[in-house]
Amino acid sequence: MKWLIRTILGLVVLGVVLLAIGLVLPAHFRIERTVSINAPADKVYSLVVDPREWKRWTVWNQRDPAMKINYGGPTAGVGARWAWESKTEGNGVMEFTEALPNQRIGYKLSFPDYGMQSAGVVAIAPAGNGVRVSWTNQGEMGANPINRWFGLLMDRMVGKDFEAGLANLKKLAEAG
Predict the structure, then answer these.
(1) What long-range pairs does 97-106 form, CB within 8 A, spacing at least 24?
(2) pTM of the prediction?
(3) CA nearest neighbour of 45 among 144, 125, 147
(4) Rounded to the nearest 5 degrees, what angle is found at the Cα of 52, between the Cα atoms of 125 and 32?
(5) Edge-to-edge strand ranges of the sheet holding 104-111
(6) How confident is the model over 92-130, as pLDDT tens digits?
(7) Residue 132 and residue 124: Cα distance in Å, rounded?
(8) Which of 29, 33, 78, 106 could crosslink 154 through cysteines, CB 3.0-4.6 Å?
(9) How far is residue 115's CA from residue 30's CA, in Å, rounded to a whole number?
């Protein structure tokens, strides 16, 4: 019986220590991936300025073909948005907040089920005979110590999706 009490006490102490560490972890996360694309800026921009094009190159809806997507606002540029519902990829909303032709798209991203919001940019810059595309996303995990632990893992969890998405964007933009 003593071992059970010691085990429970040990688990409680471990939980308190993990929560305490979580309180001092950074609340901010940032993800960034970059790819070189041998295509003109206007071709790449056309694939990122319209939310309907994102399903052609991002990986989330490819993992869940049954994902329900609704589009709103203008078809492209500032105010264009899409919302999705997915059993495997979660529910979310993305809205474009900035659109500089052939240069960048800024967006805000929201996951209402988790109370999480972030902001990002897909930036297009001239590079050699093509462009260099950087996709970033950053946000705050808030005061919740458990969320802050997840913040440490965001780059590892989402970074691979950014890499795969940019690889798909490269294939699309360089085709034909």
Answers:
(1) 99/49, 101/42, 101/45, 101/49, 102/41, 102/42, 102/45, 103/41, 103/45, 105/45, 105/48, 105/49
(2) 0.84
(3) 125
(4) 40
(5) 28-37, 130-140, 116-127, 104-111, 92-100, 81-85, 68-72
(6) 999 999 999 999 999 999 988 877 889 999 999 999 899
(7) 6
(8) 29
(9) 17
Q: Take residue 10 and report the two structure tokens written for it.
A: 């040990």
What span, in angstroms and rounded, lies between the C-alpha atoms of 25 and 37? 36
CA dihedral 84, 89, 95, 97 (to 10 degrees): -170
Please give the domain boundaries of the chain with CATH numbers for all domains.
Answer: 27-174 (3.30.530.20)
The gap between the terminal CA atoms of the chain, to the nearest Å, is: 72
Two structure tokens written together for 143? 């005061």
